[in-house]
Amino acid sequence: MPHFLFATGVENSSPTVDHGRRRVDEMASCRHYELWRDDFALAKELGVGALRYGPPLYKTFLGPGRFDWEFADLAFAELNKLGLIPVADLCHFGVPDWIGDFQNPDFPRLFASYAKAFAERFSWVQLFTPINEMFVCATFSAAYGWWNEELHSDQAFVTAIKHIVKANVLAMKAILAVRPDAIFIQSESSEYFHPSSPKAVERAHLLNERRFLSLDLNYGHSVSAEIYRFLMDNGMTEAEYDFFMRQDLKRHCIMGNDYYGTNEHYVASDGKASFSGEIFGYNEITSQYYWRYQIPVMHTETNFEEGPKGYEAVRWLYKEWANVLHVRSSGVPILGFTWYSLTDQVDWDSALREDNRRINSLGLYDLERRPRAVGRAYKQLIAEWSEAMRTGSVCMMVPLGPCCV
Description:
The chain contains 14 helices and 17 strands. The protein is of the alpha/beta class.
């Protein structure tokens, strides 16, 4: 793996909505199945070294021991030919219909079998995100009731999170059995909850402990007493908790932190949370996550809607890049940066719940594959900064830290 990765990704969310009656496939919505060769060529032209990318799980994993690799074979062969490093994104917010949803206790075992089969077939792939944004997936599916199981309870959330993280852990172990030098870049949403009233302080504190839950379990980090009680009260057993605490996989991992303008929240006196916009920002929140787990970091997702003048997304890009440099200068080993995604997306303004066919101008390219202003700016940023980040010479401007070692 290079010392520093500039990356983008192809949006491959595929949750079900409307009580399972409709599956949202962002690869289809964004015409990637038609234009995948063009998309890879655009990524190469940008100068990125890596592409967050994975075949659609629901189309590829047809049943126990049954796989359709036709599209994946073509796509990954092209990535290899172009010299783009894939970060294999194996499960992005949805599972095949025959599995059902994240309440299914068989999901961890089944998904691990898929991860092993993928690693065996694409043995040259080294970087993996087994399950994308585990906390968001469990929250949207089982706490907010938006996707997949569409449940809205603490017990459903705990069930989802324990199954999702166990699936991630078992997948990592299955991949390591095939490729012992595999590296796992766990893309996860980095959150913070601000109390907007003295009456909200206790609730905000609990939410700020809960935001770590997926990574605590994934990395075998003991949770707080409040969160342990929350887990036990909502269906996790001591044996299940002990399973996570016995794992020792951190040495194979890079912590991917995703940051958007929606990652920070106000908590009201009634306990309800709403988006606050950026208050702390990526630097402060990523530092909190880093010092909790103390493993290398990568900025694995960010974007911003292009406004009428086209400058808003460019400003966000350079602001996030400044945050990456500040994280690095503070001594945190940060190994990469990602604008997500390569192209515009569709209906993310309703979190994929409404079929409005509304284009969200979040990409480096629009859906006609024309570069947006932020795409041109990112290409320039990569060209200007690649050598300095590769050699570590940027550290000459700041106090010495692990990034300079």
